[in-house]
Amino acid sequence: MPQTAPPKPKASSIWAELRTQILHGSLKPGDSLPTQQELGTRYGVAEGTVSVAMARLVQEGLITRKRGAGSFVTEQRAVRSRVVDVVRAIPRRPESVPSVPQQHFEPPWLGQLDHHLDDVARQNNWVLRWHHLREDEAAEPDIIEQRFTDAKAVVALVRTAINRPFLTRLDHAGIPMAAIWISRAESGNLPERAAYPQLTPDRQQSAELATEHLVALGYQRIGFAGTTATPWVTGFLNTVTRHRLPMNAAWFVRVDHADDQTIRQSLRELLQGPDRPRALVCETDRFAVDAEAIARELGLSIPEDLALIACMEGSHWQQAKTPLTTIFAPEGEIFRLAVEMAQNTAPTRSHDHRPLLDPVAVPGTLTVRESCGGKIVHGVSDPSSAVARGGERRPDYSSR
Predict the structure, then answer these.
(1) CA-CA distance, 381 to 163, in Å (whole number)?
(2) 84-98 pLDDT, tens per residue?
(3) Are 157 and 107 in contact (CB under 8 A)?
(4) Helix-strand-coil percent breakdown of the chain, rounded to 5?
(5) Does the residue 144 lie in any domain?
(6) Which residues 6+ apart lie within 8 Å of 284 measured at CB?
(7) Minimal CB count within 10 Å: which of 74, 119, 147, 222?
(8) Are residues 25 and 99 in the same domain?
(9) Is residue 394 part of a domain?
């Protein structure tokens, strides 16, 4: 069977590679870049594609073009004031589940995060310098001095408390910084207080908002599907208890880093029973899309037989056959706030008597589509307003 050629890199890939070389010092101020023809040959693309990448570097102030001489790396003093260092911790795959694809250990919104951060950076004229650190690299004693001594603002995308010592070392080095908890916080919805700013999507609020939306539409038999992460479960149970809705342990699907087969089997057991729920709050859009597929295999219609809503909109919701109602975590806004907090923080190497700051939980917004019934409504933060702003209450059924 003949092998197919690898896909040609796009302009964004060429831009990203050259940009990384400039920001990390492989290409120094005054260095000349290869010609567009040479870069086109290197990457196997047309010169027009290279031109798009080069124009973006010029727009960012990273290179200058001199007629008849070529393109050169600019003096970095002006650029450095606009650089935002973004640190992403690379998770370690649990040894207990070596067969599970790596992407299943990533937060559901991480796949789109780069694009959102890039958009925010362009809007604010920031230049992002990425650092992808494994846990062992973050623990190296010289990592701060090697990479961050010239940093003007560092935003760390944090997954677990394993990263906490690295954050403390950044803070103690007097580097302006903020942390975004992109996965579950340490023991609940919010991380522990710290001397540096911390932000996180409000997962408990997202689950409450999703469940309240179903309650407002008249559903009573509501189940939950997700992982063992506490915030979403707490938000769901708080709302169910507040409205005194019936609770059944069989209506819960909670798995921890399971593969697709385990998730789908658990959802099948939930939905094929005679006493199944009539609405399902899903932790992520991935769970919701899987639930929809199982429901259709069982002959159930969405939303007539089963209403679905996802507490976190990631990259899967568009795969749903019936447009999926979701809670959107405003990652772009979270990043903008984190950068501003880092830039406005007065760093100090004196650690005595420093006040601890409360973490900031940024609420999500409800986007009503068709999977719960009703018209499409975007940006709704109050479930009752979904009806007032065009959402349609479906008739109450006794089976709900």
Answers:
(1) 32
(2) 888 887 655 444 444
(3) no
(4) 40, 20, 45
(5) yes
(6) 108, 226, 310, 311, 312, 314, 316
(7) 119
(8) no
(9) no
Identify the CATH number of the domain in which residue 66 sits: 1.10.10.10
Judge whether 71 and 55 are in contact, CB under 8 Å: no
In this prediction the pTM is: 0.70
Which two tokens mark 343? 């830039």
DSSP-H helix ranges across 124-259: 135-138, 143-147, 164-172, 203-216, 230-242
**How far is the C-alpha of 112 from the C-alpha of 102, rounded, in Å?**
16
Angstrom distance (rounded) from CA 348 to CA 245: 51
Residue type, 187: S
Query: Distance (Å, rounded) from C-alpha 279 to C-alpha 291?
Result: 11
Last residue of a domain, one of 50, 74, 98: 74
* Domain range for 57: 11-74
For the stretch 339-364, pLDDT in tens is 989 888 766 655 556 788 888 888 99
Which pLDDT does position 257 carry in this prediction?
Answer: 58
Closest-CA residue to 207 (of 26, 363, 318): 363
